[in-house]
Design goal:
mainly beta; 49% strand; 128 residues; single chain; globular
């Protein structure tokens, strides 16, 4: 029913930019809490950015000032704008979703276990 499809990944040089997209079907983004995760080879999957159904958003400290998460409810699409990319940003990037209305007070929003739906991933490679 619910399907998330990422796109926009690629190979760029350090200092460059990419914009990732996640097309959502089977659910409305205005009723969906969403996040971007990434996983580099041999490393643990980590949360990068998240956005609630009402539009509130946050990013982790390591990408603050460089990455911006946003969405277009009319297009039912989630975005991750990545600027000033660094080699350490190289990873497979995944979008994830959770139905809105959940209480985040006792849930870890940066844990992959929290999210119910996942895309297939898109590779981002940054060359230094």
């Amino acid at each position: 029913q619910v399907q998330l499809v990422e796109s926009g990944g690629g190979s760029v040089q350090a200092g460059g930019s990419l914009r990732l997209s996640c097309a959502v079907s089977g659910y409305r983004t205005n009723n969906f809490d969403m996040a971007w995760f990434r996983q580099a080879p041999g490393k643990e999957r980590e949360g990068v950015a998240r956005i609630l159904s009402d539009g509130w958003s946050s990013v982790v400290d390591s990408v603050k000032g460089r990455f911006t998460i946003s969405k277009d409810n009319a297009k039912n699409t989630l975005y991750l704008q990545m600027n000033s990319l660094q080699a350490e940003d190289t990873a497979m990037y995944y979008c994830a979703g959770s139905r809105s209305g959940r209480s985040w007070s006792n849930l870890n929003p940066w844990s992959a276990q929290t999210y119910d739906y996942w895309g297939q991933g898109t590779q981002v490679t940054v060359s230094s």
